[in-house]
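INPUT
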Amino acid sequence: MNILLTNDDGIFSEGIRALYESLSRIGKVIIVAPDSERSAVGHAITLSDPLRVKKINRGGKFFGYATTGTPADCVKLAIRAILKKRPDIVVSGINLGPNVGYSVLYSGTVSGATEGAILGIPSFAISLATFTNPNYSFAAEFAKKLAKQILKHKNLPKGTLLNVNIPAVEKKRIKGVRIVKQSGQAIEERFDKREDPRKRIYYWLTGEIIKSDGRDEADIETVRKNYISITPIHCDMTDYDFMDKLKLWKF
Amino acid sequence: MNILLTNDDGIFSEGIRALYESLSRIGKVIIVAPDSERSAVGHAITLSDPLRVKKINRGGKFFGYATTGTPADCVKLAIRAILKKRPDIVVSGINLGPNVGYSVLYSGTVSGATEGAILGIPSFAISLATFTNPNYSFAAEFAKKLAKQILKHKNLPKGTLLNVNIPAVEKKRIKGVRIVKQSGQAIEERFDKREDPRKRIYYWLTGEIIKSDGRDEADIETVRKNYISITPIHCDMTDYDFMDKLKLWKF
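OUTPUT
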């Protein structure tokens, strides 16, 4: 099995190393990842700058390609230019921090897997729901199990990827796996307005705590209750339900 | 009517000026847009850098705020920090070049409207299907008509925006308006591998011609046949159809 691995925290992150070590036990892992952090890049691709690629060895057998691009660029580059053989699966992660609710739209980690799905390869993104003191070992184990399931069932629809979020608790406290929708909960956010030493105003985006009413059977609540959430995400964003109503408008 | 206007070609582009002039006839237009081009930024937001805002006057009544952020940042900043009053509608465009098929996922223009929808404001993105010699006048007129329809019907679902693509032909050759899905056609692309003067390799993404088999009733074909395409896009990317099958997997 050929596994293409990417992420948005960069090739030197601990999350991608944990994933590399776990997935190496079930296949040949090729890493193509950003040369530094690219968080919240959404599904960005690089059109107006050239991309550069550098071979990296992080010690042991950990060998990969670092690029100057985004996660989506990495997957495109890997498949269209670097790899001799098409991978059987694309895995993106392990992200430091959850990717749930509307954050899915902003996530570089998810976009790496999205690009895999666009290119017709079974893909998943995996994130650990903490920003501090991460322990990636359980998430890395779970990724291995999921990769095997994907290749066994072979029924992921074209253009659909899996978005996985792992609670950041001890293995024994994890209650199980739930297949849930992406939450539509509002994101709590605000801008800190500050003045620099030269008296010029600038803004920092902050306060991204995600609200939840506790009733929603969706990814945010699921992870909070210590279940692993898996959400199938598709690249067709059409709101089919609204099409008939829209046809009644007069143009 | 308060109209918030953004784009991804930047505040100095011709597309946003055309839109400003047309929409000014039906409401008060406030412009918050990137200070330069931000194409293919996907739904990126800026977390690790501060954002700066500068007042711009392009002559006449054209007055706006240029930011160092992406289109999604612009809409967030406008609503959370700059504007005193919540806008009634968010309009993003007019983009130079179509945003159809999987390009919707890469598009900065669409992401400006997506951010509006996430924040609960009726929103649309509008693009002109040419990369050269644009004539924005018909698209700008159409945007005005569409804004009125949105505010008249008031039935855009929460989290749903409209993605509009205008054929780049004379007004009399436009055949009408069609409500269609986002195309799932593959994107033709490749990387040009080049060597810089210092003998180092770099890659350019190129060849983004979108294939079409001509049968698909979706945005790509619709615009190619000289119809205006309108696709309702929603921010919930869950693939509900696949959820039941996924529940049968063993974890």
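end of record. Chain A has a mean pLDDT of 93.
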